[in-house]
Amino acid sequence: MITREALRGHVLEELLARLLQDNGYRLLVSAKQDPDALVQGKNGLLVRGRGGNHQADVLGEFDLPVPFSLPLRIFVEAKCNRTSVRLPVVRNAYGTVHDVNEQYSPFSSDPNPVSVRRYHYRYTLFSTSGFSTDAQRYALAHQISLVDLSNPGFAQFRALVEQVADAMYDLATRNQISTFPLGQMRIALRHTLETWTGDDLVTVEEFEFSETIDDLAESQDEPEVMTSSRTTSKRPARKWLPEHELAQIMAGLRAEPLGELLIGFPAAPFILVFKCENPAAFAAYLHVHPSSEIRVHIEFAERGHHDGDWVIVPAHGPQEFRLLFALPDLLADWLLNSEGPAAPRVRDIKRGMLSSLVVFQGNRLIRLLYEPHPDRQRHR
């Protein structure tokens, strides 16, 4: 059966899908939403590439138009390993996004249509155990976004993922299920998290029947017989998580607060995930300050010590809200400790990358404008 760590990764991806949906992205969950670019595969949604189709467990399209750019779509992949994510995972992400960005579609139905790119795809990897140095270096070179969830600020979120995944894993073990029903799990999570944006979400019962037929189709070398209206074979029937107990797990997830996380968009080819220490206080601050621009300080890590969280606070007045975030070590070191001939250029990049961070709160777009501390001008 699937390992606990792999199952946690799948659960994390579904929670991150909700995070995307709450932060300006429209989720793409069915090939019917874009038949030219998407394919419905046996194990989920696929994106057409120049050389093949690519699995997309979580795929989002940015709802707002980006000036002078194609519509932006983002792949999300999550890992809950015991060790840091290694280079092959990042290399695979680059291969995927490069191939789908090479896919061209006919612009019209003319006999000699012009083929054009319709979307620009990006790839973001989330990890609860960090990334190896080689993986970070490769991602930085090829603009693959890495989000490190291993820092203390995300402990509660990691615990939620483990709680839900482990409860389903233990439920499967108690019921002697040898092949974990990932499809049933995804349907249950998407019902609970309200992350299915298509109009054709099947019920668990419908999915169970289609999965059974798929299993039988894979074993054409085994004799088959017809019983009533369904096809059976010598293969043991697939087993499913008991619906009542699965519903109890989902009810516990529904009660958990998911509004502590925000996605931040810097002027850079990566995203940030903020942990809001007090969502109610942040909402109250935004209510009192209706402007779309808020000046903030970023409490940087000290040189050589970026294993803790960074904090965004209001630049003026008391610290009425605190947004925590973290970066992979290599990127943090590049932003903070650049020296030598390239230092002036890198300082300009630092100012550009972190000078304006966009977040969404409800339907409101907010720009967090970085303002250095007067006594910390050396970080500028």
Automatic annotation (TrEMBL):
InterPro entries: Restrct_endonuc-II-like. Residues 218-237 are annotated as: Disordered. This is Uncharacterized protein.
